[in-house]
């Protein structure tokens, strides 16, 4: 082999390596991980109530991030056929063929096992069990079965989506008490209008891929009714966390303000003609609402730590 060919292959490797790492990172859906880590923070500090242990904190944050990444990698494998049909997902690594199924499953297994070990080393058996259950619901029950077969797949998926803050809470509390139950209910209720809003502004994608989400199966008008109903249920559920003295006055103010504005937007949906634009606003406010609520849980818990 001449020097020119050798140099060319070396350059190709330099170009390919960063691309491969980007593909692997994309496989784990970093945006989903980031959002869930904020929720995990909220649950952790809600239970901490002024106490803090580095080992449990690092273990739960790293462990849940790895387990979520594992689930997302598995989801990419399962959904590769329908991802190819949707504009939002048709450029994912498995659809492009830049990562093989074997590689993706290997990465998922490595991340999942690492996450479980991390949680086991720094938290407790309940925390590990909840994280594994969340993974199983997302990968097995939702991705493998319900997503393609039933409009209730969104409801099933909400259980796994609500698990990170509960995992964070139980890493400190060591038990599934009323606080953990309230977090589970709050985040399950939040997931529904959040997910239905996505299904409305991604309606064409879901219909093309034959995914039976509520707006496709029963129509956008029915989805609006469900969005309104879940937000109406979400508001008292979120306030209950403060009224039960699990969270403070700052949390109550944020939950009431953001929940009220989210409800206002849901009601406006009946008077607006542009459903896509409206759904995007509902989606955006859902992100702001749950992020603000989670962060205020952290801030309220940190005040006595810094005093």
From TrEMBL:
Pathway per the UniProt entry: Porphyrin-containing compound metabolism; heme O biosynthesis; heme O from protoheme: step 1/1
Transmembrane segments: 30-48, 54-78, 99-122, 128-145, 152-174, 180-204, 225-243, 249-270, 282-303
Coiled coil regions, renumbered to chain: none
UniProt GO MF annotations: protoheme IX farnesyltransferase activity
Pfam families in the record: UbiA
Topology of this chain in the membrane: Multi-pass membrane protein
Principal localisation: membrane
InterPro entries per UniProt: Protohaem_IX_farnesylTrfase (IPR006369), UbiA_prenyltransferase (IPR000537), UbiA_prenylTrfase_CS (IPR030470), UbiA_sf (IPR044878)
CDD domains noted in UniProt: PT_UbiA_Cox10
Localization terms from the record: Cell membrane
Keywords per UniProt: Cell membrane, Heme biosynthesis, Membrane, Transferase, Transmembrane, Transmembrane helix
Keyword Membrane recorded: yes
Reaction(s) this enzyme catalyzes, per UniProt: heme b + (2E,6E)-farnesyl diphosphate + H2O = Fe(II)-heme o + diphosphate
EC nos: 2.5.1.141
Record bears the keyword Iron-sulfur: no
GO (cellular component) term, any one: plasma membrane
Biological processes per GO annotation: heme O biosynthetic process
Job of this protein: Converts heme B (protoheme IX) to heme O by substitution of the vinyl group on carbon 2 of heme B porphyrin ring with a hydroxyethyl farnesyl side group.
Other facts: Carbon 2 of the heme B porphyrin ring is defined according to the Fischer nomenclature.
PANTHER family: PROTOHEME IX FARNESYLTRANSFERASE, MITOCHONDRIAL (PTHR43448)
Family: Belongs to the UbiA prenyltransferase family. Protoheme IX farnesyltransferase subfamily.
Listed name of the protein: Protoheme IX farnesyltransferase
Gene source species: Vreelandella sulfidaeris
The gene coding this protein: cyoE
């Amino acid at each position: 082999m001449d020097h020119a060919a050798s140099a060319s292959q070396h350059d190709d490797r330099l170009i390919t390596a960063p691309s491969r790492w980007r593909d692997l990172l994309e496989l784990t859906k970093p945006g989903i991980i980031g959002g869930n880590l904020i929720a995990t923070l909220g649950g952790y500090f809600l239970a901490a109530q002024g106490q803090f242990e580095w080992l449990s904190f690092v273990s739960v944050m790293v462990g849940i991030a790895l387990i979520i990444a594992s689930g997302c990698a598995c989801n990419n494998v399962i959904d590769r056929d329908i991802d190819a049909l949707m504009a939002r997902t048709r450029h994912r690594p498995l659809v492009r063929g830049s990562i093989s199924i074997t590689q993706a499953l290997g990465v998922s297994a490595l991340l999942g096992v690492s996450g479980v070990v991390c949680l086991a080393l720094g938290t407790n058996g309940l925390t590990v069990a909840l994280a594994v259950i969340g993974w199983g619901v997302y990968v097995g029950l939702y991705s493998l079965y319900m997503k393609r077969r039933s409009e209730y797949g969104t409801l099933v998926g909400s259980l796994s989506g609500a698990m990170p803050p509960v995992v964070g809470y139980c890493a400190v509390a060591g038990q599934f008490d009323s606080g953990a139950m309230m977090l589970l209910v709050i985040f399950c209720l939040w997931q529904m209008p959040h997910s239905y809003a996505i299904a409305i502004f991604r309606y064409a994608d879901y219909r093309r891929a034959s995914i039976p989400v509520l707006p496709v199966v029963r129509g956008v008008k029915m989805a609006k009714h469900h969005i309104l109903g879940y937000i109406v249920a979400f508001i008292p559920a979120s306030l209950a966390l403060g009224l039960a003295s699990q969270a403070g006055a700052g949390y109550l103010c944020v939950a009431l303000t953001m929940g009220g504005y989210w409800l206002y937007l849901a009601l406006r949906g009946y008077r607006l003609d542009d459903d896509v634009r409206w759904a995007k606003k509902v989606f955006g406010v859902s992100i702001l609402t749950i992020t603000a609520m989670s962060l205020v849980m952290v801030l309220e818990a940190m005040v006595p730590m810094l005093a």
